[in-house]
Amino acid sequence: QVQLVESGGGLVQPGGSLRLSCLASGFPFSTNVMRWYRQTPGKEREFVAHISTGGSSTSYADSVKGRFTISRDNAKNSIYLQMNKLKPEVTAVYYCMVPYTGSWGQGTQVTVSS
Fold it and tell me: pLDDT tens digits, residue range 7-20?
């Protein structure tokens, strides 16, 4: 059974940083690309970042380029999202996702507010 468990969200002031984590299980993690998405109330879930199986190739939504970094540790079955210079508009629930199975985690809330 595929399980994705996000953590690391919280309340942070504008300009601050957060590091999200996603622990995966139930599938061959090291041979699967992974992604982060986010969703705000009343809006569709939107793509944030993608990482290849080995971590050497990444891609980002234009709105987060230069401020967010996706990474992975295949030994720990985990992906991460380092978020810097946070702005209020990135407030959302952040989800990790494995495209091969179409599975999602439960999400972690990120709130940027003073």
Answer: 999 999 999 999 99
